[in-house]
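Q: Second attempt. The first request was missing the SMILES, so the protein and fe (ii) ion are both included now.
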Amino acid sequence: MTVPEAGRTVDITELILDDHHEQRRLFAILEQIGQADTKSLAAVWGRLGVFLELHAAAEEAIFYPMLLKVGLVARRQTATEAETLDAIKDHNEIRDAVTEVARYQAGASEWFAAVGAANLANSDHMAEEEREGLTDFRRLASLQQRHDLAVAFTAFQARNYSGVPVIDKDPQAYIREAESGLRDGSRGSLNIGGLKEP
Ligand SMILES: [Fe+2]
Ligand SMILES: [Fe+2]
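A: Got both inputs this time. The predicted holo structure:
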C-alpha cells in the first residue's frame, strides 16, 4: 500500500459513478441512432455490453468484498450484506439481459426491446447502488481505503479491458466466499474463474 500524496488521491466511489455516467451516456446514444444504421447500433452496443459485464465483475472482485469488510468492522454487517446480496442478484439480471440482446439482429424491434430491458435493469441497479452501497462505503471506509481500491479497480478493468467471462453468481455463496477470504486474509477466494487477478 502506497500512501498517496495530498492532492493525488483517487476514490473508488467516484470511479464507479463515472462508469455509471458512461453507461447512461451510451444507452442514451443508442436511442439516438437511426434504426437503419445497424452497423453503428451493433458497434455501440458491443462496447456497452462488454463494459456492463466488466464493470459488474470489477465491483464483485474489488468493491463488494471491501464493503463487506468495512461493514463487519463497523458492526453494520446486516446492512452491507443485504446491499451486497441485492447487488449480486442485480448483476446476474444485467448479465442475463446483455446475453438476451445477442439473440437478435441489431436494429430489429426485438433487439431494441432487449436493449431497453437491459437499460431498465441497469438503471434500477445503479440507482440502488448509488443510494446504498456507495453511500455506506463513503461513511465507513477511510480515504486511504477508497484510494487503494480505486487503483485496484482501474487496474482490474485495464487488465480485462477486452471483456470478462460472463458467469452468474450465487449471491449467498458469493458473500460466504468473500467473508471467508476476509477472515483468512487471502484474496484468493475472491478471484473470478478465468479472470486475471485483481
Ligand atoms: Fe453494480
Ligand atoms: Fe455499478
